[in-house]
Amino acid sequence: MVFFQRLKKHILGEEIAEIEKVRKESENDKIGRATSETNTLIDEFSEDKDNTIINTNVSDEPYIDLSLDLTSQVLEQRNNSLAFKVKKFLWDGTGKHPKEQRYLMKLDSFLLSSSMLGYFIKNLNQSNIATAYVNGMSEYYGMSNNQYNYVVTFWTVGYIIGQIPSNLILHRISARYYLGGLEIMWSLLTVLTITCDNLQSLYVVRFFLGLFESGYFPGMEYLLGSNYSAAEISSRGAYFAVASNVASLISGPLQLALLRRFKDSSIPPFKWLFVFDAVISFPIGIYTMFVDPNTPSTTDAFYFDEQDRLVGLERRRLIGAQLNTRERYTWKKVKTFFRHLAHLRIPPLVFGLQ
Length: 354
Fold this sequence. Notes:
Residues 111-354 form the Major facilitator superfamily (MFS) profile domain. The protein is mainly α. It contains 13 helices and 2 strands, in the order αββαααααααααααα. The chain folds into 2 domains: 15-34 and 41-55, no CATH class; 98-353, Growth Hormone, Chain: A, CATH 1.20.1250.20. The protein is globular and about 75 Å long. The protein has a two-stranded antiparallel ribbon with strand order 1-2. α4 (98-141) packs antiparallel against α8, α5 packs parallel to α7 and α6 packs antiparallel against α10 (269-291).
């Protein structure tokens, strides 16, 4: 029974700390700041199944001290230092508190790499159907142009249907397991594509492929926005988008090389495109499950120690962000959603820009 309770906590990513009390660490500033006594960070805590729930509501009480008291001399040196400006340009963590730099470096190393790899394989996977169609798939299935449009339409329908429930599920399941699970599912469905002997089965596989791919982009954007500040998200979002461009850049030459390599195979060459995409997607899905940190209030990442978790919470507190992400859905929230319909203007604008 204890095993299943731990498994539930691990998969759902509950906002529970493993310690009873969280205390601020004493801080020694390099410029001679006096050491302050260690104070209790959280005075009130409630026990739930022998675990302590951190109060993740935004408050004035800091989780950990990340302030920097820089002298005018140090500030002047930074303003006049070309090396500092170059470092700041290359990585915006430069100049932050050492504890925050350490935290941000871990985020960039794991979360950013995982998001870029995932978005890369997603876009690579989306482009393979067009290449396959003009390299033997149309003859294999005896397809007309309209039937190819049906293949694309079934994927699009699945993609549209899956987005809203996907984001709702993301608020109840650990993000790293959910996003990694999506990558693994679409890699398995990509493999199933080679078993389709008729168009009807291909339509079904493409529908579910779109369904499972639909949650990745909004889910990863949610995860990036939960861990980075507004000033940091712009550059990370650019790196995230670059992965899509790289996939578009190399997909043509890569797929052409595969078609030439397996042109004499007993399996139709176009099917090897799907095999290759699945082979590289599956390990990236496993990687995502291991390295994505979840949100600051639910993280259990192996590379974060207790100090890092406090830094993550403090960074969110400083920008006034809501830390508790697991609120119940109520009829009041549902009615508010449909009462304010401004967000419904966004889809037509997006489709108009396509």
